[in-house]
Structures are given as C-alpha cells and as structure tokens.
Design goal:
mainly alpha, 4 strands
Length: 289
Amino acid sequence: MNRSSRIALAFLVTLALVGVVAWLVWPQPAPPAPKPVPVTQPVSSPADVTATPVPSNDPIRHPVQAIDTEPAAPRPLPALGQSDARLQQELNALVGRKNVQTFVLLESFVRRVVATVDNLGREHAAPSMWPLHPTGGRFATLKRGEGEVINPDNGQRYVPLVQFIESVDSRKAVQLYAALYPLFQQAYVELGYPKAYFNDRLVAVIDQLLGTPVIEGPLAVALVEVKGPIASERPWTRYEFADEKLQSLAAGQKMLLRTGPVNHRRLKAKLLEIRGLLTKAELPASVKP
C-alpha cells in the first residue's frame, strides 16, 4: 500500500487532499498521469499575483471571493517560490508545530498540494508530488477462495489519520486557503492550466470523492504480475481491485475505498463540511449526501 496525503485533505480542506489526503495512496504499476497542456502564456511574476479571477473561456463556478471569511488586515503574499516559510508559519498555527514537523514536506508545498489535488481526480496520483512525508506500514490481504481480499484490519492503519483530519478546524483551514489563494492559482497556471481556475478544480475533485460508493463487504484484489528475472522486493505495492469498475475509478476514489467503510464515512463527512465552506453551490445529482 502506497503512502499518502493527510494535510492535502486537511489543509485544503485538503483534503488541504484532500485530499486528497499520505496513508491513502496505494502505489500501482500504472503509467504517470498525462501531462497537462503546456503553458502558452507567461506565468505572472510574484508582484503580479492578486486575487483577480484568472481569465477563462469558461465562467468561474466557485469564486474564492464568495468564501465567508473573517475580516482581517491583509498581509502581503510572498513570491510563490519563496512561500514555504510563510506556509510553515500558517500551518504551525493551524495544526501545530509538532504535526508540521512530523508530517509535512514544506519544500514547494503549494505546488505539491496543487499537483496532488489535480491528480486525485485522475487515474494515477504520483507519490513523488505528495506534500507529506511517507509513512510506514504495509498493505495487508487475506486469502478468500482462489483469490484475495483486503484485510479488514487494514483499516486500522488509517484511524490516526482520520482522527487527525477530523481534529482540523475546517473553517480556519478554508479561510487560510482563501487568504493564500493567489499562490495556489499561480501554481495551477504553472502546472499547465493558464485559463483554468484552481478552486473550480478543487471543488470538482471533492465532488468526485464524495461520489465514491461506500462498500461494506470485502474488496477483492489481485496481485499484478511483473515478468522478469528480478523478483519484486515490494509485492504489496502491486495490488489492484479485481472489479474492473472499481479499478477504473480515479486515484482519490480508490484511496477512499482502501480506508474501509467506517473511515470512508468519516472522511466523507469531513469533505461535505469542507465543501460547504468552499462553495454554496448545490451538490451534483450523482453525489448522495
């Protein structure tokens, strides 16, 4: 089982993802996600970063300006490439210095969060881009007939993560995200989306995660065969869902399934709370509250 993201879901939430957001990733022999369309216009310099909505061919659906925030004296934003120190201060205040030191990869944190959120809605979420330190533990299975299922005890590995996410003040996390939003938007432009709005992508990914079905019964998995003269040193990282429909889900959805039904429901409740703070737009019809 791969390592995952907890502050992405906790911080952008993230999810801040989500959160997508570190114990939730399960490495698979899948190809990397397709590269986004190259940037065709210069990226704004740090001095140009403001809260002005980015031009787009499509209307912005979830403007950050609509987020309910407490009045506060504005603080000048650092350049994106020099924002790690500011993020460290803000995250220390949000989740505590010890948690930041233990879990967070502060180097290029904003860029890591943006890439991770974007990838949660795709086929594969590259572990190299997660904004957290990897965690230990192995993915466990049980023999069931001629196949294997996820060990029900595997869900216990995620309990500390779920408790951590639940402990984060969602309102403060979302307000911090809104205050720093120009940095996230610039990172999204640099990622290859010069005319897209990152908050729209964040809400869309959360909706996708919320649409993941909670499955009560055992989940069948299969070990992917790797041919070659050298045996795999980490075979537990090569499992896929035996059900093709489940295996075809987005990376973030499969992460939720692997946490087990109890953790899945608790994370879903947190995501609903965060979504309600990010936007007042109604949930898609495909999402069951």
